[in-house]
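Quick question, first post here. What does this chain look like in 3D?
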Amino acid sequence: MRFVVKVVINAFAFWVAALIPALDITVTPFPPGGDLQMVLTLLLVGALFAIVNTIVGTIVKIIAFPLYILTFGLIGFVINGFLLWLTAWITSGFGWGVSVGNFWWVIVAALVISIINAIFGFILRPQKKRSRA
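> Answer (accepted):
Ran it through. Tokens below.
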């Protein structure tokens, strides 16, 4: 259930990032390109981004741990931008999905997506049951 929520949040975050013209992110839907195809494309891109972030992101973050220490965590922005670029590269092979422009704007777009994920992750996190004393 958490994966489904993460995919929906990622899809929403990609949609918001695509609405900001300065970020140079475009979402190309499945043919014929209607609203339903756009929603399905966003959901698939969100799922792919979650999988790339889980698998590749974990490996890269473990390998880059010394860089996290040296840069006080600022390398995390570059790594998140790389993961977003990797997702765009994977989907570009299919003829649908996300396309990105300049790598530095990809880092800013990854920051926007991370902020949206953090906000909705905080709102939608599972609540702990309180014990009655």
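The chain is about 70% helix and 5% strand.
Strands lie at 25-28, 97-100.
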